[in-house]
Amino acid sequence: MTPNGRKAIVVIFIVLAAGLISGFPLLSQLFYVLAGTLAVSFVWSRANTRGLKFTRNTLNHRSQVGDVAEEEFFVENTSFLPKIWLAVRDHSTLAGHNASRALLLRGKAKTSWRVKTLCRLRGKFWLGPATVSSGDPFGLFVATRPIADRRPLIVYPATVDLPDFDIPVGDLQGGPRMTHRAHFFTPSVQGIREYVPGDAFNRIHWLSTARNRRLMVKEFQMDPSSDVWVFLDMEREPQAGLGQESTEEYGVTIAASISRHFLSANRSVGLVAYGAHHAVIHSDRGLRQLTKILEELAVMKADGRVSLAEVLFAEGSRFGRNTTLVVVTPSLDESWPRALRDIMLRGVRVVAVALEANTFAPGESSVLLLSSLAEADIPTYWVKRGDALDRALSGQRNGVRRQWHG
């Protein structure tokens, strides 16, 4: 019942009392008219939400930041009576998803609409539930009933192409490294050579092309046995920034992009991320592995209490000489480079992606961390707020390749 409905009931009782006290016939007649109007309004509002067939068609249950989630809605009036003052309200948790509509349906009529929503945030969201509401011509009653259940939508983190992201290749056990030409992309760039017919255009190395004034392409080295493990620092303490411009979101995007980069190259990739729960996805290959990693990263939050150094000490013993670790962190703690150095002594190759937290929010300088990483001889990519990740994670820009020689 609306506030107007409650006022109407008060008026009806006043009229009834006045009629009984005064015995004036007109007041009695007015009471019956008002009471009848109230009853008709009550029945009208409830009958108007009946006889409706509602269908919700979610076109995709998985999406990605930057992609569009789509839904179709169909409403049919199965009765001969028209339906007016209908309001379909959607209670989805997906930001910006506005599927609510005001409807007027003739008898036996149908209507439909489609909603497209740009996914701006990663996470698990609910599409629905939905309710239908209707009132009466006098605004005395509002009847509401559910017409659709909710459905889950997983929004994966954004990924970017990393054509120039290089890592040190893990030492392979059981045989020499393969050095013949790879006919597909691998993360290990062997060198640059002149273009020959049949080479894919996306293998062209434009800097060398401009320098030599002829088309030059990247030569890739096959390294199918080396595992890549991505360590994403999800401890709460070192994080900085807010929303999409935070070290948490940059870190998740980088971890997702690196995972996709190596899985696309037929490498075996694993993930370690200690948030509120400890996520460890054992290394594997293929699209299914990428899906597992993206689904984990979609819901991962930087609410952990375990430092990166502790994570490395806890998990580092599982890795051997055929492994490369990629550590993504905003931490300025100098203990994690020492932990990585200990892992390197066992023949494990490592590379760090350091998020400069003081570019996301005022804070300490990363000079001491830079010194620790250089002392430990750890190849490092530095990422600042606002950086284009494909350029920031370029070995040529960061000078990472020079640190691997020798």
Structural write-up:
This protein is of the alpha/beta class. The protein has three domains: 1-156, Immunoglobulins (Immunoglobulin-like, Sandwich), CATH 2.60.40; 189-222, no CATH class; 224-404, Rossmann fold. It is 30% helix and 29% strand. It contains eleven helices and 20 strands. The chain has helices spanning 3-22, 25-47, 206-212, 247-264, 286-299, 308-315, 335-344, 367-375, 389-392, 395-398, 400-404, and strands at residues 52-58, 62-64, 68-77, 83-90, 101-105, 110-118, 123-127, 130-135, 142-148, 151-156, 189-194, 216-220, 227-232, 241-242, 245-246, 268-274, 278-284, 323-329, 349-355, 380-383. The strands form six sheets. The chain has a six-stranded mixed β-sheet with strand order 17-16-13-18-19-20, with helices on both faces. A four-stranded antiparallel β-sheet has the order 5-4-8-9. A hairpin with a 2-residue loop joins β14 and β15. α4 runs antiparallel to α5 (286-299) and α6 packs parallel to α7 (335-344). The termini are far apart. The model is unreliable at 170-185 and 399-406 (pLDDT under 50).
